[in-house]
Design goal:
about 110 residues; mainly alpha; EFCC1 protein; CCD48
Amino acid sequence: ELQQKVEETEVLKMELQMLETERVRLSLVEEKLLDVLQLLQQLRDLNISKRALGKILLSTLESCREPQPGKAQLFEVLDTLQQELAACELLHKQPMEPAQSPRSLANPLVISC
């Protein structure tokens, strides 16, 4: 009976360790997802086009087509998407000065993404 209790204790310890590992993994995914959502919000506020967002998403999915060994595919996709969004030129441009509106540009036919 004592041996059985010891075995049950070991099984419970292993299950607890697996749960803790899963909790940490989910916490990392949640943080990455929050980063992605914040970047998407910033880009939306900058009026990024749906086409540009689509290109970023397709580029991300294309680069994650072959899963890297030892890396969870979900986390890999989120990580890559976060990097792609963070690299978007709109996030790094200086805001226009008040006197310079989009209509006062030298060439009104120039469209930036």
